[in-house]
Amino acid sequence: MQNRTMEIGVGLFLLAGLLALLLLALRVSGLAPGNNVDTYKVYAHFDNIAGLTVRAKVTMAGVNIGRVTAIDLDRDSYTGRVTMELDSAVDNLPVDSTASILTAGLLGEKYVGISVGGDEELLADGGTIHDTQSSLVLEDLIGKFLLNSVNKDQESQ
């Protein structure tokens, strides 16, 4: 009887550990039904959104203030339109704020970083950030470097 009780206890302990790992994986991936924080939508148009994904974080001064909820192509301007949901606690963003697509580390995940502007008019729900800086594509940077070094070699001959 004591052996059976121990086996049931170990089984319950393992089940609790697996559930904890599942919950941790869901929270890290951003899929967990989480905080029901009031949000408002803001849009930004970028020339290049390479590597940015839905559910990517939106930060300001290194603090997470929202998430990317949609990425699509604007058929009028042929630019990528990013829809972001920002926490309503950060409802004092000026309309001349800047949105940049940044990389965590050298080859890490892409996220949107917002720099605060100085205008007195504030972004409202459904507002658009017009000043944007697109994603830096490593392949383009390497290609420009190689092309530049080849041009220097040809000029020196």
TrEMBL record:
One of its GO terms (molecular function) is phospholipid binding. Transmembrane segments: none annotated. It comes from the Bacteria. It holds the Pfam family MlaD. Residues 39-116 form the Mce/MlaD domain. Signal peptide: none annotated. This is Phospholipid/cholesterol/gamma-HCH transport system substrate-binding protein. It comes from Phytopseudomonas argentinensis.
